[in-house]
Amino acid sequence: MFFATQNCCLAAPDPAYRHHDRDRPQPPVVTPATPGTQDRPGRAPSDAVVLFDGKDISKWLSLDGTPAKWIVRDGYMESVKGGGDIRTFQNFGDCQLHVEWAAPSPARGEGQGRGNSGVFFGLRQYEVQVLDCYGNQTYPDGSAAAIYGQYPPLVNACLPPGQWQTYDIIYTAPRFEADGKLLVPARITLFHNGVLVQNNVELVGPTGGFVQQPYNPHPEKQPLALQDHGDAVRYRNIWVRELGMPGKKEFNLPDALLTEYAGSYTSSGTPVDITREGTQLIASLGGARFVLFADSPTTFFAKTTDVRFEFRRDQQGRVSQLIWSIGEGGITATKTR
Question: Residue 40: which residues within 8 A CB-CB, separation 6 or more?
Answer without folding.
Answer: none
